[in-house]
């Protein structure tokens, strides 16, 4: 087939649409979709399929094998009970089919073209991060999905976005060594670190730490220790500092300030209500035991006198308000009775109504870490996970274990996870409210449920084969990216939304097949 336009024109269009994809991968579905559709049409009209087949063969058919991740989903439609769910799943995953073939059979990028794509990616990430920051400040209305900090990530889930930011920071670390714009790269690195901080994404922080560690390790392995002494020191100091800081928070969280009070607990409130004391519970808030000195009748009556939000209702984060009140009172060392509620200021009342559970003004990192520790402790003691994002994942995985057993070898079919979880929740709620009755939040588990053992093995092969054949395991950028993807797959259903599919298919394919110089040795 002859090209519709001049060969050079198709090449220019390919680069232009690749720039658009790199720019738009952090800015939502519209730009991503336009870029992928345009790349596909340009590839088809360009023709030259003999040369494309030749390049595919030179790459040991790795692009075709990678596209096989989509073909497997097509084949497994025969297992799907709700066909519309399967079709919808295929629609979302279309980039897995197109991008490996398009990028894998098109001549690789020159250093100048690579430079343009890299800067386009960073520019898009910068613009999206500024929008996220404006949403955090309240200049832009955030999403209203969860009522939490997660809603400031406007273009995709905060986990997917934080993973993308983490990879962007690795790219900037690379640019510090390769570009003349070193100061700009350092400044942007620090800016994105701040964005990760306000996103409060534990997954993003883990992605960043492991990816940067791997990047420096590979660089040291290739160039020697002496050339990278400064990089190693710059890496080690913050990691040690963060470890010490986190350990201090953990120790403080476990510390009980009023342990001696257990020996001399009051039986009655000053007004005569009998206190409830659960001495077996070691749950704390700011070091004070949560489930002692509880007088629910007094607390309810007094709270309802002071607030328009009822004691038995919900706070603005959709949490049971009475528990928010109990935690807040405990954090101040107050009893959960009339005197305790009366001791609260009007500002305290407003914070409780907003869903703030502690009177202590922690920084965002400490606040998030303490929240996770509280979730884990609460789950350990009460076996409840509702409204707790970390421990809910434990519940989701417990359900997944049952679903996998039902169709172990061939799975539920493409998109079958959605109906499988929905059916499970009709008979067993697992203590989760309807809005929290979600799916696995783990891409590996999701695909095991969908594809079963046999399909899952084939699916893994399609992802691993191209990495082995292109020898990217110790690549400066690919190895950190792969680390980020694996962590993201473990923490989220990464490939169940278009943003996640495009991040994986686009960047993965680009790093595997789209770059001529895999060592990125030239200056950019």
Protein architecture, described:
This protein has a two-stranded antiparallel ribbon. The protein has helices spanning 7-24, 29-46, 49-58, 62-75, 83-92, 94-104, 111-137, 158-178, 182-199, 202-223, 229-254, 296-306, 321-331, 338-342, 346-353, 364-382, 389-406, 416-427, 443-469, 478-491, 498-513, and strands at residues 284-285, 288-289. Strand 1 and strand 2 (288-289) form a beta hairpin. With 524 residues, the protein is mainly α. Helix 6 (94-104) runs parallel beside helix 21. Among the domains are: 226-253; 259-353, no CATH class. The chain is globular and about 90 Å long. The chain has 21 helices and two strands.
Per-chain topology:
Layout: H1 7-24, H2 29-46, H3 49-58, H4 62-75, H5 83-92, H6 94-104, H7 111-137, H8 158-178, H9 182-199, H10 202-223, H11 229-254, E1 284-285, E2 288-289, H12 296-306, H13 321-331, H14 338-342, H15 346-353, H16 364-382, H17 389-406, H18 416-427, H19 443-469, H20 478-491, H21 498-513
Antiparallel strand pairs: 1-2
